[in-house]
Design a protein that fits this description.
Elements (H helix, E strand, L loop, with lengths): L7 E8 L2 E11 L4 E10 L2 E11 L10 H17 L10 H4 L8
Antiparallel strand pairs: 1-2, 2-3, 3-4
């Protein structure tokens, strides 16, 4: 089973003219958490960049189905809507915003 972490490059609506995109940062296997660098936009303007932690306890062992990507997007969108990070993790955030997504 081949797996690549999804990239959310198409702006997803947040309401009020805001959208979000996200790039995979890392996976903490011990805690079953993944981290994404999220960018919030208002039109063409970037209004926020921060790391988001998503616990994957709900995903089970098969991350290749469409339900995984949909749920991950939903979880990322919830935090993106707040405009603030939900973690203290900041590893390489600045470099991830402009670089090519990693495959792990």
């Amino acid at each position: 089973m081949s797996f690549s972490w999804p990239v959310f490059s198409d702006p997803a609506p947040l309401g009020g003219g805001r959208t979000w995109t996200a790039v995979y940062e890392s996976y903490d296997q011990r805690n079953d958490d993944c981290y994404y660098a999220v960018t919030v936009h208002e039109g063409d303007r970037v209004v926020g960049r921060f790391m988001v932690q998503v616990g994957l306890w709900w995903a089970g062992d098969d991350w290749t189905g469409p339900g995984f990507v949909e749920r991950l997007a939903k979880e990322l969108g919830k935090v993106a809507a707040t405009g603030h990070t939900n973690t203290t993790y900041t590893e390489s955030l600045a470099s991830r915003m402009s670089s090519t997504p990693r495959k792990d």
